[in-house]
Design a protein that fits this description.
Shape: elongated
Helix content: 55-70%
Number of domains: 2
Structural class: alpha/beta
Largest sheet: 6 strands, mixed
Number of helices: 22
Strand content: 5-15%
């Protein structure tokens, strides 16, 4: 793991970047907690503990481990963390389990698991999250609590009741959005969000707008650091599936940071090491009353653009949050809810990835379908199920697509010339050597398509030698072996033979373990070598010799 905890010549840069991230993270942590429909203090605690602990354990020097909007919306869709006397225990159990899963995946070096989450799934998911963030803030932004089972219905309900919108609340929210967009283009850019939130929150008391809700009306924000709390054991089991989805989303987002920001030595961090670091941060956050956290691309970008050079920047950010909470915790409750909603609306719009949508859409029908299904389902089922369903759907569609892409070609070879590729014959010719080359994956689902394309063995077939070039196919599997077994028996019944060329060591071991080596006969199997085509040419020579011998032994036709 790359260290880089401290450098004397970059101390000023790290302090400045850490201070900026720390001040930004207090209102952002509250907003994320509200987005998750939990007490916002758990969002602040998650940010504070996550960014501080992650700085010590991630492989990436710059990764800021904080709660992300995507993870917050997943938490919002879990009833147990909002309802009942053990709601807080359920939240902490969720955070702890998310951390344990991340740590286990990291220690097992399973960073490669991210390849099972295709870009089409994450593109649909992230853009759905962006829309849900914006729609979810309309109640606080307008002061009207719309009715409905999901965000779509609630938005329609709001559109039908615009006369009930609270204008002061709407003004505060819109003012926050305008101030954020304006201030980020000035010298106050680093502190623009904090300034915008404070200025907008001063409007209600200044103009006596009593209808504008404050953060203190949602939850009490204590001016103290969190204490270690252990959740009740009964709350762990129901949180296993949501924790798995949270870990998956958090790790995918974190892997984007691993691939985007090189460490000071110019090398990119190890994804598995970042898994472990994010997991440890979640365990610490769970023990200290924080919500689930993961690698935050926006926070990492903020700290890097702020001048961070070592891990000290994220350490300072965590300390800054702790000091702010101790000194100004009581004032945090005075922040206007529409101001927090305005911040989240800005975050929501910036979470949209239109370029990614365009790329996935133009990639192909399967990818576009997976993206659209994931995006749509996110509005009607809990987000953690939408992610898992999207991954399962993409794997199923990939398998279906791969099974239909198996193609068998015939190679015609003449001495001194390059092989000529042509369409495989539908009927196997007699007294001839036929070289067949399969393209595509030979897994179980494609076995039937492979068998259909094999040249048919008829009653007229005799003295036919079929060479199947299998170089590049690592293993066969029982379904494919069964197809080969049937074809070999058909050929034997017509005084013909099946020769396997380019067989790998693993495939040869499969034939030996299953006993099929005796059926195919060892002289009909030519193992792959480092020389391209050597096994195929040897098989071709053997087939020609066998064919010539058979033709010589054939009795002459009667006159």
């Amino acid at each position: 793991m790359a260290r880089y905890f401290f450098r004397r010549n970059t101390l000023t840069d790290d302090l400045s970047a850490g201070l900026t991230l720390g001040l930004f993270s207090v209102p952002d942590g509250m907003a994320t907690g509200l987005l998750a429909l939990i007490n916002p203090i758990h969002g602040v605690y998650g940010y504070m503990v996550g960014v501080f602990t992650g700085a010590f354990f991630t492989s990436s020097v710059y990764m800021s481990v904080q709660a992300t909007s995507a993870m917050a919306l997943i938490v919002a869709g879990i009833p147990q963390v909002h309802e009942g006397v053990r709601a807080t225990d359920s939240l902490l159990a969720l955070t702890l389990l998310t951390g344990v899963i991340m740590v286990v995946l990291g220690l097992l070096k399973l960073g490669s698991l991210m390849r099972f989450v295709p870009k089409s799934v994450m593109t649909g998911f992230i853009n759905a999250v962006a829309v849900l963030i914006v729609l979810g803030q309309l109640a606080d932004l307008t002061g009207y609590a719309a009715a409905g089972p999901n965000r779509i219905v609630q938005t329609i309900n709001l559109a039908r009741n615009l006369n009930q919108v609270d204008l002061p609340s709407l003004f505060v929210g819109l003012m926050t959005i305008v101030l954020i967009l304006v201030l980020e283009k000035t010298k106050l850019a680093s502190f623009g969000i904090v300034v915008a939130m404070i200025v907008a929150s001063l409007l209600p008391p200044l103009f006596d707008w009593g209808s504008v809700a404050l953060a203190s009306s949602i939850a009490i924000i204590p001016s103290e650091l969190p204490r270690v709390t252990l959740p009740h054991l009964s709350t762990f089991l129901p949180m296993v599936v949501p924790a798995l989805a949270l870990a998956l989303v958090g790790l995918v987002q974190g892997s984007g940071i691993s691939q985007s920001y090189a460490n000071p030595d110019g090398k990119y961090s190890d994804a598995s090491g970042d898994f472990t670091g994010q997991g440890v941060a979640n365990i610490a956050a769970g023990l200290l009353q924080g919500m689930p956290v993961g690698g935050s691309l926006s926070a990492t970008s903020l700290v890097v653009n702020g001048g961070a050079k070592t891990r000290l920047a994220n350490i300072v950010a965590g300390i800054t949050m702790a000091v702010s909470l101790l000194l100004f915790g009581g004032l945090i409750g005075s922040l206007a809810m529409p101001a927090l909603a305005g911040l989240l609306v800005v975050i929501g719009f910036r979470t949209l990835k239109p370029d990614d949508v365009r790329m996935v859409w133009n990639t192909g029908t399967i990818q576009a379908m997976v993206m659209v299904v994931t995006f749509t389902m996110a509005f009607f089922i809990p987000l953690h199920f939408a992610v898992l369903v999207g991954v399962a759907l993409s794997i199923f569609l990939f398998a279906f697509q791969s099974s239909n892409r198996i193609v068998i070609k015939e190679w015609r070879h003449s001495p001194g010339e390059f092989p000529e590729e042509t369409v495989a014959p539908t009927l196997l010719p007699s007294n001839k050597v036929t070289i067949l080359v399969p393209y595509g994956s030979l897994f179980f689902a494609s076995a039937q398509g492979f068998e259909v394309q094999l040249p048919a063995v008829s009653e007229e077939t005799h003295n036919a030698a079929v060479i199947l070039n299998l170089r590049g196919h690592a293993d066969f599997g029982s379904t494919f072996l069964t197809v080969l077994q049937r074809y070999a028996l058909e050929l034997k019944a017509r005084n013909s033979r099946l020769i396997l060329a380019g067989v790998g060591r693993h495939s040869l071991a499969e034939l030996e373990k299953t006993g099929l080596i005796d059926l195919f006969e060892r002289q009909n199997i030519f193992t792959a070598t480092d020389r391209i085509g050597e096994a195929l040419f040897a098989a071709h020579a053997e087939a020609n010799t066998w064919l010539e011998q058979n033709l010589e032994q054939r009795p002459p036709a009667s006159s």
